[in-house]
Amino acid sequence: MNYTKEQEQAIFLRGKNIMVSAGAGAGKTRVLVSRMAELIMDKEHPIEADRFLVMTFTNAAAAEMKERIGTELEERLEKDPDNLYLRKQIRKIRQADISTIHSFCNHLIRTHYNELAIDPSFRIGEEGELFLLRQQAVEQVLEEAYASGRESFLQFVEAYAPGKNDTVLEEMIEDLYHFSRSFPNADGWFEKTGKEAAILAGKDGWDTSTAVTLLLSKAQKESLQIQEELYQLLESVTEDAPEKYTGLLQEIKEYINSLTQAKDYNSYYKVLSQKSISSFPRAAKKEKEWGLYEEVKEFHQKVREQINSQKENVFTAPAEELQREAAVIYLLLEEYMALTKRFAEIYFLCKKEKNVYDFDDLEHFALELLVESYDEQGAAQPSETAKELSKKYKMIFVDEYQDTNLVQETILEMLLNKKHNSLFTVGDVKQSIYRFRQARPDLFLRRKDQYISQADAGVSIELRDNFRSAPGVLTFTNYIFSQLMEKEFGGVDYNEKTALRPGDGGSMMQDEETSEILFFQKDSASALKEVPEDILAESAVICKRIKELIEEGYHYGDMVILLRSGAGRMEPMAEFLEQEGIPVSCDNKTGYFQTREITVMLNYLSIVDNIYQDIPMASVMLSSIGKFTEEELVKLRVLIEEPVRGKYTLYDFMRLYMQEGTEEELKKKIRDFLMDLLYFRQQKKEQPLSTLLWDIYERTGFYYDVQLMPDGEKRKENLLMLLKKAEDYEKTVFKGLFYFNRYMKQLKSYEIEMGEAGTSMEEEDVVKIMTIHKSKGLEFPVVFVSGLSKKFNRMDLNKAVLCHPELGIGMECVNTTLRFHHPSLMKKAIQEKVWKDTLEEEMRILYVAMTRAKRKLILTGVIKSEELEAGMRASIQAQKWRAGSMMDWILPVMAEQFQNTDKIWLKARLFSWSDIEEFFDAREREEAAFSYRHFMEEYVEGQDSSLIKKAFSHVYPNMEATKWKRKYSVSELKSLSQITLPNEESVVYEPDEEEKIIPQFLKEEREEVGGAAKGTIVHKIMEMLPFAKIQTKKQLFDWITDLEQNYPESKQISAKWLYRGIEAFLFSEQGEKIRKMDEAGKVKKELPFTVGLPVSLINQDTEAEDTVVVQGVIDACADMGNHLCLIDYKTDQIKEGEEQQLLDRYGNQMLYYKAALEQILEKRVSEIYLYSFSLKKFISVEKILTSISGE
């Protein structure tokens, strides 16, 4: 056989642990099979087939492996038919331990079940069944906790589940449970997590804690990068540079030097909080001509953005304050871990009682058998069982090693023994994309580094030769990842030693197809009344290219469209292509319960169980089972007059119609329908559920009817899947149709994923649409990698709790009194790590997608012109960590290629609206063909409309209640309860004198936005304004000067007008008091509230006793010691002497604010002011409130 040099080494090297890093299409399975065959046939030290342990990622891979090694040995036997040893090995290979790790664990457990004290007849639970058991367990945990009444639990509930139910708590407990199961010793991890949290809550060792060290080192690294860029920039600055800019650079240098010299958190925080970088100086025309002007300006902006980010996101408070927060969180964390541990106990007991376990249990049972104990460092020590197995297996193979988790790695370690066996692992860390299953690519990298640094530990071999893809695909892939992937970002230096190369003799070696980039320019359709959604525009681009490829000689079955996620994208894309005549097949993970056939069948089962359910009954009657029309259902209901009609069900109406009805055809329908239904109601007591369901399929003909519908094959498979669910359900502890219906409703309500049944796509000539994860291990002649503009998912980062293997648990810091929250220091550290891991995995997902192509690789996306230009100007080094989508990586990497059209391996096309307009024009014409007028003339006019008239003449008996809503904002109540102010915030006051036309550059103040927008901007500025820090008017002037940099929207308001308004606010008698209170930390800004008020306060004409919910945000309040002071900002344009208009307008609003504030802070509000920016003064509101309250 012809092997590459690296393949030969992997196959024939002996006496060493070997790690094979096999790139995409490098023939790793062939290497595995050949090594096993050579070991079996080794002349000096043969290893018999039953002394192998081979662990694969899937059952299909295990079956393929066993088949291929069997075929290899049989081919050798044909050449040596008298070889009895070889015949013996062929028999043994059929019984060899070649399986998934779960199958290995299953066999091990059933062999040693007596050591685990479990019933050996256990089974793996069905997903929905296990879900229900988890629900039972978590409900029991919470019931116990509520019954205990312990303070720590009640505080935990108040902080993280303030709503009306415990759904959030249940999800939090289950999330932590699932995460903890990825550790061999979960109790050890919980203990380590608690210790780390305790360090953050105390003073000793705080600066050396993992979280603080991580955040500080990241900030210092960023500062060092800025420092390096600054030194490079200073080298370019000549003596004739404008002094103001050289001074600015010197200021930045000193500031950054102070940060890089800070050795601990508080030192770094002190520099950030006490110093700042000046605004960029205004430039004269001559200064703008300086060669480095734009570069210095961009650098200055970058530095300020970086510093502000550190201030706002990491260094938000001194260490002492963070320690106090951590102490509060520590108590909640202990409660959280205790709840999760109790859940684990109860859930296990539930499973044990039913003798049902999950795949995680298999791994942990195996650990229990193989691990004797854990030492102080947490390292596992092998048991006697493990030692015996290590003697049995002479060679251990692990396929797809990059997807191993820590539990599986521990199992593997327990089986390894230098004296008895060696390890052969195969994988590609560049294709590790299963982090959501707790896969740990770092385990792969750690073992690889160990083999490279320690010769006696093992040997690392790189398989780079790709025998799958055309040179154009490999060149494109290498070009992107050579600039994107590196040791610090992805764990691998993607260079000439690791990049893919065409394998000699490969079938695609001489292929000359080019790769392509197809982008739709989104703003080219901006002039349209209705711009098509991104997914439809991208579908049109793909559709156009598919039709061209068909003309070039390709077949539909050659093509696949890969998506990062199918949710919300797969179905619209498939529908679009099908409407254009392109046959499509796709696997969807969701939507099973929404399919017509499953909805109808579940409804039928519901009425078989309970015949008096009207909604399911109507659904079935209108389906092909009942064959009733809507008009016939109306005829049934009008047999009984209102109001008695509501007491009857559809079943009652059908029986009544059989007695009193006049239409024989309708009677026959009812007779046939009820005959079947009553028959099945009798059979449900006598037949097993699966038999009953199949009987319903056949007797009603529904199983055959759905096959005549569009997508009939898939609909049939969906019904068969439901039948399989019924068979699985019968194996559970739950029995009967009632519980099955309840079981299916719970699966539907909790959105357990049961994707629609898919048909076999391999042999069909259709375009396949699938997720990138689904495509792993497959290959296709033409691959569209689509949705490059789709944003990465950051939702997980916003969860109340985040977990990390090394850092532990990071929780949100919640103030239950004021109802505000922010990430704790530990959570910030975990967010950094999780986001880094997310970006690295997204990059690996892109790599997997691109390496699926054999002949042609096509990347597609939707982008705006400005985004395209900005992306091509960006640096890939900066974009690696800032990327929000795959597009953010592609653009800077490919910028040079877009401009160089001579590349023979790449073609780039930018589509505009005119290129795809034809697809949407045809759709519009089709929709317009069935007009409203046509519908009215054809189906409505001339028909009996008495029932419709009767329905529309109905008078609602509770009209009074329709005059108010259940929830109001304060702004809505303001407009309802008071007169309209002539010059309120939404109206700009007109001057008495005729406005003079003055050129823009001579205007003293800028043209401003409208009143409402102006009010919004002013409120934001007042929220940002540091009352306590501004002691002089010079400081206020400097702060407003810098404002445009920190809040660009502020430039829409005159700086002079703003300065005068804030100056009068801060340096008035009331302002002085507020600044002093702010210094003491007793001022709160933008305080949200929700309060219940009687509806009579809003609508004085009603006698109803209802309560409405009022929501709003209080601008500012100050705790004056024995009472509260409330301030509300107003930007309405009014004149001196018109203060009463403000009081009339906002009196009730302030009453709501007063009631809310007193309820939230439990203290009396004695001072209330409106601050008018127009009048530049405080207006007391006490008198008007007294009169309102009196009324």
TrEMBL record:
One of its GO terms (cellular component) is cytosol. Pfam families: PDDEXK_1, UvrD-helicase, UvrD_C. The keyword Hydrolase applies. Its EC number is 5.6.2.4. One of its GO terms (biological process) is recombinational repair. Residues 1-470 form the UvrD-like helicase ATP-binding domain. It comes from the Bacteria. Keywords: ATP-binding, DNA damage, DNA repair, DNA-binding, Exonuclease, Helicase, Hydrolase, Isomerase, Nuclease, Nucleotide-binding. InterPro entries: AddA, DNA_helicase_UvrD-like_C, DNA_helicase_UvrD/REP, P-loop_NTPase, PDDEXK-like_dom_sf, PDDEXK_AddAB-type, Restrct_endonuc-II-like, UvrD-like_ATP-bd. ATP binds at residues 22-29. It is an enzyme of class 5 (isomerase). It catalyses: Couples ATP hydrolysis with the unwinding of duplex DNA by translocating in the 3'-5' direction; ATP + H2O = ADP + phosphate + H(+). GO terms for molecular function: 3'-5' DNA helicase activity; ATP binding; ATP hydrolysis activity; DNA binding; exonuclease activity. Residues 497-777 form the UvrD-like helicase C-terminal domain. NCBIfam families: addA_Gpos. This is DNA 3'-5' helicase.
